Amino acid sequence: MKAARAAAGLSQADLAQAVGVTRQTIGLIEAGGYNPTLNLCVAICKALRVTLNDLFWDDETKADPNAL
Question: Of these four, 1, 3, 56, 59, which has the most CB atoms within 10 Å of its CB?
């Protein structure tokens, strides 16, 4: 998510404001310390103009749709 945010030219604070959470929440999501709700995931994707798959599924899962 950090790379997508940076590519969009947004700071953590910018993204947080766009989706209605704190900067700390964005930092925790990027660090893997917080699992966002589906609604928040969708809001983040819209703000970054990416898909859920692009942002939240790792390459291993993309390569093997049966991987959990």
Answer: 1
Task: Say which residue the tokens 């969708």 belong to.
Answer: 42
| Cα distance between residue 37 and residue 9, in whole Å | 24
Q: Is 36 helix (H, G, I), strand (E, B) or coil?
A: coil
Whether the CA torsion 43, 45, 49, 53 is positive or negative: it is: negative
CA dist list (Å): 25 to 8, 21, 22, 32: 18, 6, 5, 11
- Cα-flanking dihedrals φ and ψ of residue 16, to 5°? -60, -45
Tens-digit pLDDT profile for residues 13-50: 999 999 999 999 999 999 999 999 999 999 999 999 99
What distance in Å separates the CA atoms of residue 25 and residue 15, rounded to the nearest whole number? 10
